[in-house]
Design brief:
three-stranded antiparallel beta sheet; 38% helix; mainly alpha; 5 strands
Length: 235
């Protein structure tokens, strides 16, 4: 399952994307270096961070995509994307926030950014003969581990359990295919999308620094923050 996408936690999600984007191994997006690269592993270092020792710049697999400037973990993006495409974008921001354990405002920004990215990709013409190394989505429950959970794992586990419950009647081979197709489009370099459509460029400021509110209880909301615009069907 080398080309499977895993959604259950951050490390699994990032490693999945690295295998999909960097087919021959990591590449520095700043200078193109492929050899003098090292994965950063400090306690305060984000999962998936690399450093190029040729140009001395850090980078991640998100670089150049619509996910680049987001503080939202990649596995949250992927779970949100699956929920949206499987429900044909009919899930509300409130419901999305409850499942993902984020504020309604963050959920609304995720929906908006994903919709803008997919709309921009509609006009993108894929190079002839391009191969998509996307085969399947792993969405099975994670086996219980007798070892104590590491910091943050309990939050990821409860989020993943809510996600599996939410897609229980939506997840099938068709939904997997829609998700993989949407993910491929969103991983296209932003510069290419902007050349094919002005949608993404015009919405660049929508989600630069998303405020992420992580809860164990998916029912908590965003306190006194200003709510996003009400959506059709929301109560």
């Amino acid at each position: 399952m080398a080309n499977a996408v895993r959604l259950h936690d951050e490390k699994a999600a990032v490693c999945s994307l690295e295998k999909l984007v960097w087919r021959e191994g990591p590449v520095c997006p700043h200078c193109g270096e492929t050899c003098r690269l090292g994965r950063l592993s400090g306690q305060s270092t984000p999962i998936g961070a690399w450093k190029c020792y040729a140009c001395r710049k850090p980078f991640t697999v998100r670089h150049g995509t619509i996910f680049q400037n987001s503080h939202v973990p990649m596995h949250v993006w992927l779970q949100g994307l699956y929920l949206l495409v499987a429900s044909k974008h009919r899930v509300s921001s409130q419901k999305l926030g409850q499942v993902l354990g984020v504020s309604v405002r963050t959920a609304w920004h995720l929906k908006t950014k994903i919709a803008a990215g997919l709309a921009a990709a509609e006009d993108y013409e894929e190079p002839q003969g391009a191969v998509r190394l996307l085969e399947r989505v792993v969405r099975e429950p994670i086996a219980d581990d007798p070892a104590p959970l590491q910091p943050g794992q309990a939050v990821c586990k409860s989020r993943y359990e809510r996600f599996l419950k939410a897609i229980e009647n939506l997840a099938d081979a068709s939904s997997d295919a829609l998700f993989l197709d949407a993910l491929h489009q969103l991983l296209l370099p932003s510069s290419e999308l902007e050349r094919s459509s002005g949608i993404l460029a015009s919405g660049r400021g929508i989600e630069q620094q998303l405020e992420l509110s992580l809860f164990d209880d998916g029912k908590r909301q965003m306190g006194g923050s200003r709510s996003p615009p009400r959506e059709d069907g929301e109560t």
